[in-house]
Description:
The complex is a heterodimer. By secondary structure, chain A is mainly alpha-helical. Helices cover 67% and strands 4% of the residues of chain A. In chain A, helix 6 packs across helix 7, helix 11 runs antiparallel to helix 12 (325-359) and helix 15 (423-430) runs antiparallel to helix 16. The radius of gyration of chain A is 26 Å and the shape is globular. Chain B has helices at 2-30, 33-41, 48-58, 74-77, 80-85, 103-138, 143-156, 160-174, 190-220, 223-230, 235-246, 248-255, 267-272, 278-287, 291-319.
Amino acid sequence: xxxxxxxxxxxxxxxxxxxxxxxxxxxxxxxxxxxxxxxxxxxxxxxxxxxxxxxxxxxxxxxxxxxxxxxxxxxxxxxxxxxxxxxxxxxxxxxxxxxxxxxxxxxxxxxxxxxxxxxxxxxxxxxxxxxxxxxxxxxxxxxxxxxxxxxxxxxxxxxxxxxxxxxxxxxxxxxxxxxxxxxxxxxxxxxxxxxxxxxxxxxxxxxxxxxxxxxxxxxxxxxxxxxxxxxxxxxxxxxxxxxxxxxxxxxxxxxxxxxxxxxxxxxxxxxxxxxxxxxxxxxxxxxxxxxxxxxxxxxxxxxxxxxxxxxxxxxxxxxxxxxxxxxxxxxxxxxxxxxxxxxxxxxxxxxxxxxxxxxxxxxxxxxxxxxxxxxxxxxxxxxxxxxxxxxxxxxxxxxxxxxxxxxxxxxxxxxxxxxxxxxxxxxxxxxxxxxxxxxxxxxxxxxxxxxxxxxxxxxxxxxxxxxxxxxxxxx
Amino acid sequence: xxxxxxxxxxxxxxxxxxxxxxxxxxxxxxxxxxxxxxxxxxxxxxxxxxxxxxxxxxxxxxxxxxxxxxxxxxxxxxxxxxxxxxxxxxxxxxxxxxxxxxxxxxxxxxxxxxxxxxxxxxxxxxxxxxxxxxxxxxxxxxxxxxxxxxxxxxxxxxxxxxxxxxxxxxxxxxxxxxxxxxxxxxxxxxxxxxxxxxxxxxxxxxxxxxxxxxxxxxxxxxxxxxxxxxxxxxxxxxxxxxxxxxxxxxxxxxxxxxxxxxxxxxxxxxxxxxxxxxxxxxxxxxxxxxxxxxxxxxxxxxxxxxxxxxxxxxxxxxxxxxxxxx
Lengths: 475, 326
């Protein structure tokens, strides 16, 4: 009972949240089932054996964790006022990530302020204690508000915070290193000192040293961000005074959802149609080929634009289905994924059809047919496992393309809802700021850095995956 | 050859009909003409008469598929489907929804600025990418190759929006090398074209170089390359003559199909640089909900794509005498 009062919340599951959970569940299921397959285990080991592959994986995991944490939504209970029956819940939907970040997401200033600044970016009329009015840069409400009058202690404060963050990072990282060594030592029946020396000298099969260094850098930067974001606006504030760093972090979920949910939507379509076209041939093949040739003949951006345009008008005309702004934004995000999925299944479908055409002429497929194994069973036993590497390579390759596409589409005004935080929306809002005098550069840089990190990690990881899984072995 | 092209064009008809039906379904069934009228007239204080008049002026007040008030062929002809969708097959795009301008005229005017940007970007990009890829292949296995591959991955990971924004900021605002945006008719246009072309080439360099490099690497270990080397042909000549010629088929597959689509212009480039081409035309139409322009551009885009596919097949015969079209 006590606990319930502390956590008095109303859980909100948005459509995309549900799909994120489904996706996480499917991924875990896939990992478990792959572990029992010696061939797949070996190939995945190959992926992680490359230093770049494992570092990219560490970075991707950090992004994914942030995205998943940002997908647990709830509405907090409002404080009870007198003569009120029952609990009322806040109209604002928050996520677990907001709770972890804590303060910064409520820290709204009046307008622009530079990174780490304690002052506003524009001058304002301020009434001095003696009654005169002077134009000067006012202090910010939150950013650097703990500093003294002339902010002379700013550097020492930042150094102190950096020092604290290094201590925290070392502590957490040390625990991780110890845990890894402990687990490996228990598994291989070796002493922990020996395993530690092996990792340190880089003589392990999987480059644990590189992985640990990557994790260490990541933990250090996260703890540094956490320490600094408490008292400053790391990437300044935007035109209406929102913390830019917080927005960039919140955009991670949008980017990940566009990159993964789109794939989730297009996979069943691409796999089933591709295999059907290649396996049954004849009129089935004709119909499916006609379908994808028609869709692919429409220029991608135009098809997406046309579909999004129509959908937006439809959503605007039917407000009764989407009572809150969050739900409307969510349905726009979902529809963007569906529409992107509708245009991106074609490439995979073509590849699968071609490969199926080759596979169906192989001896073991003929043998299965002669023995009277049903078509569904043949496809399940002989085709799906042999096509999985194509699916996997396409999925990881498409991911970074989709993240980049989201930014472009949002910039063109046909992407996610303007209220959803996304890198595209951030760039869109910031594009005129470079023309200002003096230049406001921080929103753009923040969006750039966060997006670049994700896409680069995804590209490097997909390279490693392709190298391991592509039987042609093209370097 | 002529028969082949004719047959391919006949195959294209059902595909274009499919495109037509998709756009028709999107723009007239999901969104009704009434919705369109309301979008254009604004939300408040509009009467049924105003909507009727708006629809009548643009010919949207006819029935969708069959007109029961007419006789004979007019039953099919006096419908939205015939007048707005089938007419696209004759490349008759009608008038725009917003200010009832002639879309055909607008396209004929605006395709030139689009081409002025897209063609130089395409040609320079092609040359730069192939040369870069050749250099990487020439230095394969060395640190230069590794460095180049890392660089291409980094270039690929940067959103095209950043290339444009950073390019405008650096080259126009800081260094004053080129005007930041705008366009001028005639030969003076070149000053406005430099920046978009340079940025277009750079933003396509990562993916392009990587793609050509993988194509060339597949060729590099073939027997004819070894023979050429054994004969004492210099490595650069091996690459630019033998390998390039033999890699033509995959290159043409990826390249030729986009040539007709150059007419459509680049949506993002043209909006950023305020170039009055077809790309910005499309974006303006999307933003002002001008469905008849969007519909026309979708159809035009698929026509150009199909033409691109046919030219691709024909181009195979130019580079590979073994290919015969029949």
